[in-house]
Amino acid sequence: MPSADKIAALRGMRDVFSAEYARQRQVQERLERHLRLHGYQPIDLPILENTELYLRKSGEDIAARLYQFDYRSRRVALRPELTASILRAYVEHMQDEPLPLRIQYSGPVFRYEKPQQNRYRQFTLSGAELLGAKGPRADAEIINLACGGLERLGIRDYQLVIGHSDVLESFLQALGLRKQLVNFLLRNMENLRKRGIDAVIASLREIYPEFESATTATSASADGEHTQSQRLINLLREMTDDEAHQAITDFLHSLNIRIDANREQGEVVERLLQKIREDQQGPKLRVALEFMRRLGELAGEPTAALRQAQALAADFKLDGAALDALGRTLDCLAEYGDISGDIELDFGLNRGLHYYTGLIFELHCTLETGEAIQICGGGRYDNLVSILGGGEAMPALGFAYGIERLASVLETAKGAAPEAGTVCVIPVAEGDFASAFAAAKDLRARGITTEVSIEGRNLSRSLRQADRRGARLVIIIGEAERADQSALLRDMRSRQEQPILQAELAETVEELLSADG
RNA sequence: GUGGGCGUAGCUCAAUGGCAGAGCACCUGAUUGUGGUUCAGGCGGUUGAGGGUUCGAGCCCCUUCGUCCACCCCA
Questions:
Q1: What is chain A's percent helix, strand, coil content, to nearest 5?
Q2: Using one digit for the tens of pLDDT, what is the confidence trace for A490-507?
Q3: Chain B bases near protein Cβ (<7 Å)
Q4: β partners of residue A127
């Protein structure tokens, strides 16, 4: 028979086999129990959602990695995470529940990224969300819960990294930077830390050429301060976006100027306005970058890092509310007294999902290769409910573990092989299958894993197969047994066998197996 | 998106430019009702695809597809 081209699994998708499968399930089950013991109720959510759910606030990089498509004129997407779905479900069905609400979930998610070691396009997230709770107590509960799950799995050697997105974001906003620019900077904290300010500016120019003038070191228009157009520009700068927009539109109208019909008038005005405002972004941008550089250096032991951050905040005349809250969270966390991993503060920490509004944290483990691997991420997202159309804003936070990664961390520690067929029933001839199936049924009813050999090989081969597949006991039913409704029960370890009435088979097998322990 | 590695039997992989091989798996027999071993044999290939160089290409060159890994980012 001519064989057609082989169909392989899609890139980034994985087949999970016996030992690894068992390990992943075990991890999932233990975590579910752990979270349940803390009052987090499991719920199940759709894998397919309206694409819009992920576009509202997840951030561009998530959007770019979405598996999304049109299906019968609807935009749908495979979920890249579950927090958005949880909140969607909350807004849709759970707004009358008493708060705080504790929920857990587990299931596959999809992200179209380049696959590599410990990174796949489909993977499993298990997580918890604490809805309707604010303040350091709630923050500490979630962190402690996330760490507790690791301990529950026997992982005591891990690193907890805590950050706070408000410290940087509120500073950038207070500076009066354009929103686009703020978002860009938030995304590039890591970049700045690794490659320096120049690299960030270069990348800014590449992505947003309209900020070109803001990124050049010297301002060319310094001596144009008193020209009439400059006065007009200064006036516009003092207005809000809406006011300025209206002013320009009215101005053009009053002069009876018509704008090229190919372009939306509003768009032209918008661009003009943007151009006018960029010029003043330069100095602010430099202050922002300097602040980021210094903030990014603050990482390490919590008390010291926090003190340095407070000093930095004072230097830049920043109110330290976020830092105080962080300090209280750390105090609350200490009260639990069961964090056995290393704790580190990192003010440069910033996560890919852009809906975080306060606390953010990650858990890392070390693989046997010595390589660090992130196995959990989470944080606070107080405005996500209102973004998703909830009646009123609600404080909320949560975290999620990457199950495959957790399992790979445990792989080194303990690799319990899954049990294969415990009992194998071998019918010798065609006429013996009915009896064999009946015997197997009895055994399974008692919870004993049983396979029936259906290959139709001779007895020698069948026994060999049963043995190689790890059978503990073999039941042979053939011509000799047929007459008196018996079966031959063979112990594969002791190589001893005894005839047993088929009616008594299940009970005898159960006794033998329980004697094994 | 950037940079590497690898595509050879069902699977894992060998093969200084010179007869395409091994292990595992599968099948048969030694053994027609007694297993992990052993032995004998068998099945199995357009060397990812297409083009080029050469007397000769699995090997060198170009193109393309697939895949793994690193950077980026993340779980």
A1: 50, 20, 30
A2: 998 888 899 999 999 999
A3: 1-2, 11, 26-29, 31-37, 66-75
A4: A105, A400
pLDDT digits (tens, 9 = 90+) for A297-348: 888 899 999 999 999 988 888 888 889 999 999 999 999 987 888 999 998 8
Residues 54-73 of A with CB within 7 A of strand B: 61
- Residue showing tokens 């997840």: A58
Tell me the ipTM for this assembly: 0.84
For A17 and B40, how far is CA from C1' in angstroms?
35
A257 pLDDT higher than 50: yes
Reading across the β-sheet that carries A41-42, which strands appear in turn?
A41-42, A101-110, A122-131, A396-402, A372-380, A359-366, A158-164, A342-346, A299-300
3-state SS assignment for residue A136? helix
Task: Give the homologous superfamily in CATH for domain A18-165+320-412.
Answer: Bira Bifunctional Protein; Domain 2 (3.30.930.10)
List the one residue out of A402, A380, A486 whose CA is nearest residue A436: A486
**In this structure, CATH architecture of domain A423-515:** 3-Layer(aba) Sandwich (3.40)
* Domain boundary assignment for chain A: 18-165+320-412, 211-278, 423-515
